[in-house]
Amino acid sequence: MILGEVIGTVVSTRKEERLHGLKLLLVREVDLDLKPTGSVVVAVDAVGAGTGEVVLCASGSSARLTEVTRDKPVDAVIMAIVDSFEVGGEGRWSKSGSAVES
Questions:
Q1: What value does the mean pLDDT take over residues 54-76?
Q2: Contacting residues for 48 by C-beta, under 8 A, at least 6 apart
Q3: What span, in angstroms and rounded, lies between the C-alpha atoms of 36 and 38?
Q4: pTM to 2 decimals?
Q5: Among 2.40.50.220, 2.30.42.10, 3.40.30.110, 1.10.540.10, what is the CATH number of 2-94?
Q6: How confident is the model at residue 102 (pLDDT cuts 50, 70, 90)?
Q7: Helix/strand/coil (H/E/C) assignment for every residue in the chain
Q8: What is the average pLDDT across 27-31?
């Protein structure tokens, strides 16, 4: 899994039939300070994520294990929207912007 930030959307009117109805989002991998690490992937959204949200993505064969992506030709899927995270018992980030309790 990777920690990423949704930075945009992908629109494709012509695509493989099994991809119809799936929302495609651009996800940039980020580090624990939410700074970009360089790579960007196109991921199928399985959870209703939106631009600016911090998400967890799976790639490779694991990307085809959600209900939304099962047996579909995808290589990356957004499978969670992050509410908060901590490192070493210390709150590092919270979606609400408030302090994270350790």
A1: 95
A2: 81
A3: 6
A4: 0.90
A5: 2.40.50.220
A6: very low
A7: CEEEEEEEEECCCCCCHHHCCCCEEEEEEECCCCCEEEEEEEEEECCCCCCCCEEEEEEHHHHHCCCCCCCCCCCEEEEEECCEEEECCEEEEECCCCCCCC
A8: 97
